[in-house]
Amino acid sequence: MEKKLAIALDVPEKNAALEILDELEGMDLIIKVGYSLFLREGFDLLSDIKRRGFDIFLDLKLHDIPNTVYNAIASAVDMDINYLTLHALGGKDMLSKAVEAKGSSGIKLLAVTVLTSHGEDYLEFLGSRYSIQQLALKLAQTAIEAGIDGIVSSPFEVKELKEHIGKDFISVTPGIRFEKEEREDQKRSATPEFAIREGADILVIGRPVLRSKNRRKLVKEILQKLKNA
Ligand SMILES: O=c1ccn([C@@H]2O[C@H](COP(=O)(O)O)[C@@H](O)[C@H]2O)c(=O)[nH]1
Question: How many CA atoms lie within 13 A of 120 on its CB side?
């Protein structure tokens, strides 16, 4: 598939969001809206995003009992969104119900494996007998078997997932940072070049773009890297 860039619109409210959307208008981008902005601004903001020609990635990271996730996704299919996340940790039954609720709608369901803010120490703390790589693969395999469209992981797991999962899927990688840039809370972060090389299909980037003095220029540069891949 054509490689894409998702901008994480992690800003506190609508005016800040619109300023960024206006700056990026006309570019071939996915706009990722997390639950903090969505809870504050709701569907109106999603319409603003669509009106500017962007695809919408609603990052709600659903994780609940199967029936509740089924109902959430049944509601989501009526909205004009392109991608929606849920946690693979919710298990096979939850993932299968999500796929059932999605039905024939065009929405792409993306399963989050191990958050990019976690390191091996967190799995040790949980008493896991799996490494991050192993757990991400196990969760991704379960999600893809259930019929989920894509997998969210750090760039470090992409190659292994692509090699071991016998089906096509969309690989989505947050945790993107430029060389020598502050990683903040991202423990498994990598450069755009690395993520592309490993086979990621959608790169998700938030703060490095949001804090840039010239967001449009920076986004253009990343899009060029994706185009050249
Ligand atoms: O494992 C995950 C899953 C989702 N995210 C989300 O991606 C962006 C990353 O933002 P940055 O500012 O580039 O760190 C953010 O919205 C997260 O909620 C993730 O980082 N890791």
Answer: 6
Domains of the chain: residue spans and CATH: 4-228 (3.20.20.70)
ipTM summary value? 0.99
- The finding on whether 107 has its CB within 6 A of some atom of ligand 1 is no
Catalytic residue among 3, 4, 50, 61: 61
pTM comes to 0.98
In a 13 Å sphere around the CA of 198, the CA atoms on its Cβ side amount to: 23
Q: Closest residue (by CA) to atom 18 of ligand 1?
A: 34
pLDDT tens profile 36-84: 999 999 999 999 999 999 999 999 999 999 999 999 999 999 899 999 9
Compute CA distances 24 → 9, 61, 156, 209, 216, whole Å.
12, 25, 29, 11, 6
In the residue annotation, 14 being an active-site residue is answered as: no
